[in-house]
Design brief:
The protein is an alpha+beta fold and 153 residues long. It has one domain (22-143): Alpha-Beta Complex (Nucleoside Triphosphate Pyrophosphohydrolase). The protein has helices at 10-18, 60-72, 134-143; strands at 22-29, 36-41, 47-48, 51-53, 74-76, 81-88, 95-102, 105-107, 117-123. A hairpin with a 6-residue loop joins strand 6 and strand 7 (95-102).
């Protein structure tokens, strides 16, 4: 059986397999005091918004909630709001990141350090650690109106 009813139908299938897009999520989560949740990974330098890859069969919003819970033991009572979709050229040339904003947080005890996450902390926007990732700083500048919204993560 030939996909799509002929040899020409194979071209889209081959292209998709060869050029599959990857999708990740990040969550800009703010507590009641306006502090931002940032995490430090064991395999990346600096502090980042919580997030990770979207698993097979999972929506971007489901992945964002899962990552928030796994990385920081935080949930949200409110629906997540999509804050943007960004191209991340540093990851394979076909990666995109969906950024969500989260409020009305339910904050559990900080999770113990593990192989992936070495720290998860809340920071006041004017007291961020020195080594916040450039992409995180760009999103914050955009949110605060100090920079135009960019297409790149």
């Amino acid at each position: 059986m030939v996909y799509g009813g002929g040899m020409l139908g194979l071209i889209p299938l081959i292209r998709r397999v060869r050029h599959g897009m990857t999708l990740g999520v990040r969550v800009m989560a703010e507590d009641d005091a306006g502090r931002l949740l940032l995490v430090r990974h064991s395999y990346l330098p600096g502090w980042h918004f919580p997030g990770g890859g979207v698993d097979f069969g999972e929506t971007a919003a489901e992945a964002a909630r899962r990552e928030l819970k796994e990385e920081a033991n935080v949930d949200t009572e409110a629906p997540l709001a999509m804050a943007g979709v960004f191209f991340n050229p540093r990851v394979g040339g076909r990666d995109h990141v969906v950024l969500f904003s989260a409020g009305r947080l339910v904050i559990g005890p900080r999770p113990a350090r593990n192989l992936e996450i070495v720290a998860a902390e809340f920071f006041a926007p004017d007291a961020l650690p020195e080594d916040v990732s450039p992409a995180t700083l760009r999103r914050l500048a955009e949110r605060q109106g100090r920079a135009p919204v960019a297409d790149l993560w």
